Amino acid sequence: MKYFGGCDVGSTYTKAVILDENGKMVANTTMKSKINAEESARLAMAEVISQVPGLKSERDLAYLIGTGYGRNKVAFADENISEISCHAMGVHVTNPSVKAIIDIGGQDVKGIAIDTDGTVKNFAMNDKCAAGTGRFYEAMARSFEMTLPEFSKLSLTAKNVIPITAQCTVFAESEVITLVGEGKPMDEIAAGIQMAVAKRCFVMAKKAGATDSITLSGGCAKNEGLKAAIEQVLKLKVVELSVDPQLMGALGAAEFARQKGLAKKA
Amino acid sequence: MKYIDPKFFRMKDQIDWKAQGENMKEIGGIVASLLKETDWKAYGKGLIDDWKRFGKRASYEAGLLKNMSKEEFLDFLKNGEKQLGKLYANGKMATVRREWRGIKDTGVDFYEWARMWGMLLATFSKDLVPALMGAVHYRWMISYFCCHSFMDKNTQGLRGTALRMHHELIYAIFHYVAENLVLLMKADKKVGNSVDLSKKVVLFDEMTMSQIMAGFPDLIGIPYQLMPVFLLSEIDQLACMPYIDAVEAYGLPADTCPVPTSECGSVVIDALPHMGACFISSSMPCDGSVMASSYVDRRFKDLPIYHLAFPVRYEDETLMDAAVKDVKGCIRFIEEHTGAKWNWEAYFTAMKRFNEETKYELQKWEVNQTPYPQLIGPCYELFRKWNYEMDGGLDPRIIQTFKKVDKMMMKAYERKEEAWRGKMKYRAIVWSIPAHYYANFSNWFANCWGVDILVEMESLNFTKPLETEDPEEALRDLSRLYERMVMRRHTNGGYDHVVTELWRQCEAWHVDFVLMYQHVACKNMATVQGLFEDQARERGIKLLWVTHDLMDPRTVSRKDMRAAANEFMRTVMRAEPVDPSLVDFEDDTTW
Ligand code: SF4
Which of A74, B110, B138, B400 has the most CB atoms lying inside 10 A of its own CB? Predict the structure, then answer.
């Protein structure tokens, strides 16, 4: 059996996936990125390789593709592919009926439209500021002195939503601190934050041409409160993926590796 | 009559030698303190490092040549080098050497290089002293020493006829620039102080149609901000930074468009020459540019100003009576302040020429709409804009350039030549506020990804022949032209001219995608962005959005602009770069 790898070196997390010849996921990992992208990639690959009996190093993989913000640092990969293409492919192999993605990464937000073969039809990207990204959530949770899952759960309990007007992470953080200081209900402020990010996603989803359904990928996809806010704002169904949405980039990279590796062999 | 009338160059200078002496003393002081502050040891080390790098590069390139097969080497001799990324080196801000284009084309290139030097020397020698003094008065003058680099970057990768055509266009533009620089410095109170010449100069801003000066053959019209701001920023990417910083330090918000910001900044740091019999200001396209006019107004209080400012409605014929009245008022104003008389014969002669030039322009478009486009890229667009707005048929030499280029273009078209040999893969047009001159974007796009920019939105503004017999109708045409000046479409064009027109153009030019320049500071186009996206999707047209901030690369870097295009080409177009050495490089390697 031949194996194919995908390694997604993100700004916050590094993810790796190994697929077998039939496209079945046989190993995966998600770990916090180190300051050195190459080291992050090596550690993540060592972890997934240790999960597959018979594999000793990345040299045993038939093909390996690097992706993500630090993709150029995956020196041992056969090839690099942009994370936009990999996210599209990852979602496509997980659920071919999904045609649009909002990918919320640590540093950016992307709207991606997927073609019938899993390639990218179009995309839009906000990488100029941290508003609505993973970093934004981290800052907000910090203001609440909570973890991200706790923050997400809290927002779901709100009966009302207090609108947050600032989009910028810095201003939003001070706005939130003011609201907390004024004694406003915490759950309603949290719901307001989710709504603010959902509105940001609205622009991206529109750019990506989402019509009836959409899926979320990236770390923030696990945020239930955001999912609820997006459904409310976008009036689109948010499709749940059967595979961890944070792995979509690495999965797409591994699928590209599988296609390329098999074609090479042929 | 010869254009520009030689008597303008011969007019007497009245240089204030005492003031010049003081200025030179101050400059001398600055130079002395610079010399004193220089770390000569570090400088020497830098020189040695440069030589070492040069040695390394030379041996690397010699190695590449040595490893070539015989066929590759012959191709190299004939067609030149293919990996242009080699020309850049970190921190150099210019290419490390000139491009090797093959024996014949490198010969052509060097000839043009020398021809440009010859023209510059001959033009500046018409009145060298004020020009030299201007160079120490105005730092923007120094950037014009880089015009050869501008020429190199705008012809990068070009071969054969396309190379020669581009050289003709660049030469024509720089001939105009050189002559106007000499006149600017000669008439400027701070430099040449030629009172006689100053009386003959009518200044105007970039939204006024220069064609109005065709009726005054005894005067000279100079677009005031062209040389110290606009063209400058296209030659030297960093040239407008001092202007922007100066006016922002004054309190102007940093999200204002860099066009009016730079204009205002140039006033704040006193970078605009002081001269002229009068100034024609126009109704500007946006609040930012209105602000710029008011700065000029306040700075040059002694300059009589006429505000040619009838309401701009793009194509509202009911406005024409009011517009004609305003244009007549403007003509009267010029007559009053210069003593010159409007000359219909001279005007009609120039406009006949301009109409002929427009016909040649349309011919270029016709060729570019075929599978064998010939004259493409930012340099051609720059020429079009310059001809349409600044030259306006006044200079009889320009029709010769048109004729020459047209002849070359038609021959190349018959031979089915490729403008960028082996690099013509995708067809695209530019819409929205174009940034390609400042960032040298279209040349890079063609060389790196094989994307050919066939035309841009601003070039398409107005092609109607101007009336050449009936004076009343001629004034109406001048008004119509005024309504279609640069930046008018995205500010006054409305839905049909901005959105629907794009789909019509996509069909006419058979595009693979549209390069949508998204200017972060210009709010006008932002209002229709969603409509563009929705309608493009419905029509199956791909849009590449490239965010930019015109001449300010600090808001959105050139590297970020290229990264957006790289991502689009890889993911949406599923393309491979034709020259991978150009995919990623630092901005400090080039201007
Ligand atoms: S680009 Fe837009 S904001 Fe800038 S001067 Fe032109 S109209 Fe005004």
Answer: A74
